[in-house]
Amino acid sequence: MAKKVAFCGMLTALAMIFSYVEALIPVNFGIPGVKLGLANLVVLAGLWILRPHEVLMVSVSRIILISLLFGNGVSLLYSLAGGILSFFVMLGLKKAGFSGIGVSAAGGAAHNIGQLATAALIVQTAGIFWYLPVLLLSGVLTGVLIGILTGRVLAAFGKSA
Amino acid sequence: MKKKDLILIVSILAVAAVLGIGFLLFGRSGQTYVTASVDGKEIGRWPLAKDREIDLDTDYGHNHLSISGGEAKMTEADCPDGLCKYQDAVKGGDNLIICLPHHLVIEASGGAEQADTDTVAK
Amino acid sequence: MKRHALAPLLLAAALLAGCGQSAPSSSPAAEEENATADFFAMDTYMSVSAFGEGSQEAVTEAEAEVHRLDALLSTGEAASEVGKINADGGGTLSEDGQRLMEASLQLYEETGGCFDISIYPVMKLWGFTDQNYRVPSEEELRGALELVDASAVRFDAASGEVSFEKAGMQIDFGGIAKGYASSRIVEIFQEKGIAHGLVNLGGNVQALGTKPDGSDWRIGIQRPDETGGMLGVVSIHDCAVITSGGYERYFEENGKTYHHIIDPADGFPSENGLVSVSIICADGMRADGLSTSLFVMGREKALDYWKAHSSEFDAVLLEEDGSLWVTAGIADRFTSDLEFTVVKAPD
Fold first, then answer.
1. Which of B4, B44, B121 sits opposite C243 (nearest CB)?
2. What is the value of ipTM here, to two decimals?
3. Please, is B6 exposed, middle or buried when counting C-beta atoms within 10 Å of its C-beta (0-12, 13-18, 19+)?
4. Which of A44, A83, C121, C164 sits most deeply, having the most CB atoms within 10 A of its CB?
5. Which residue in chain A has the smallest CA separation from C20?
6. Partners of residue C25 in chain A, C-beta under 8 Å
7. What is the pLDDT of residues B46-88, one digit of tens each?
8. pLDDT per residue over B10-50, tens digit each?
9. Distance of alpha carbon C69 from its chain centroid, rounded?
10. CB within 8 A of C334, min separation 6: which ones?
11. Is the pTM of this model over 0.90?
12. Does A65 contact chain B (CB < 8 Å)?
């Protein structure tokens, strides 16, 4: 049990490092919310090596901690919405027998949809959904990339997604 | 990767493409004004044709909008991430700039004269 | 498998359907019933709209009320209440007349004489009452101005009796009659249980509640020039928006333009740089009277007056040189393509 908690803690720390590293690289796509989502690598890998509630805990802890450290109340809100929606979509797709890349691609898209919906609520402007096509596209592309990376990582663990 | 993964990915991309084409076809264009709103409430509207510098000070914080050459860009923001400064300029079309921490949206729009009114006082 | 492939598509479709702001808020009551009456009264075109159950009846009654008030208050009709009082040098006012008189005398006091119902003899000289426009001679004006003095109106609020201290004095409620009429219509709407209504009496606008969908009414303020454009748009509910400007009624003689807003101080059309004054106020009658008064005051005095009464109303002022002034209380609900200055209330 304690070993499991420690392992979850390490994964959370790893995810936080990924978030931090990503924040250090100023990649600007001209559109808010478009980013690689490196931290999703940990969540995705977690789906194959941990139990669902443990993965959710890692993901939510990561988001809360990162927001406390570097963000603010608003970023917490929409990161959570994206993270949680993405988690359940990925969990469902994994159980439906999709492999890592498909799960990750849909997770990326879901993450962006969750963030966008929260943003639309916050600024109370439906016009923000204008970004949806671009964010779906970017979510899928980054998701596929993360999916491939996760496959390599899991292979190193001797697991296959 | 399985075949069903490919179908999933392609179908999401198809949705994105259909939405994107739809927005481009039915989206507004040729807007001549830029509108700033906070919490969905309009706080200002300026013609894109005239260069000017606008300070947007709201309960949430400070932003600075710069209109020049028919484009509006966010040039300053005291929000933690400052992401809005890197967003594409608002021109005549459907693009918008969003400063999420400040609940601020900058978008292209028609003028007040084009905006619907219910009646006119004279 | 196919089912799962469709999932994201459905999700996106659901999101899109949910985000459409334009989706009609289809509460059945809002669509069920509404009524509008357009008619001519008080020398102007009027439009009255009510929304919701009973709106047809409310609108019909509103139109009848305007015609009744028109007949009661018309200075041109010898048989009207005001006509008789002007002919007889006094008389007893009806309940409507009493409310108008009380408000008029109060406005006279508050505005330091900028609003004066006894201006009627001067209006007649200029021909604004019967459209026989002409520039009166100085002598004529001096004579008529003798009679302009609302402080010489004796009014007994208990009995409704009114008399003039100077023989020949005459009154005209024209400066607040339309505002009173729109206030009365809103009262009628409320009695009938109407929650949403919009009244435009020849450019004098008054709104009851919000729009049926719950959003504010968007009232355009006309630009005084001939472009037909707008100065700006105010978003309001439960409020009157009333504009005064020299462009409403005027005539030209020897190349000079004379408009109908006469300064009671000198008997001439007021020339102080203001070209349009809009008042935004919950009370339509007060808004009507104040729009004329502030127009006569000129920008500086008008803004001083507002600062002393900033909780009661808001104003939008336009000057000849194009400068636009908007008082703080309405500034965040006012949009304009023009640059404007927000006037702050004193702390």
1. B121
2. 0.82
3. middle
4. A44
5. A126
6. none
7. 778 778 888 888 888 899 999 888 889 899 888 776 777 777 7
8. 999 999 999 988 887 776 666 777 888 888 777 777 778 77
9. 16
10. C232, C233, C234, C316, C326, C340
11. no
12. no
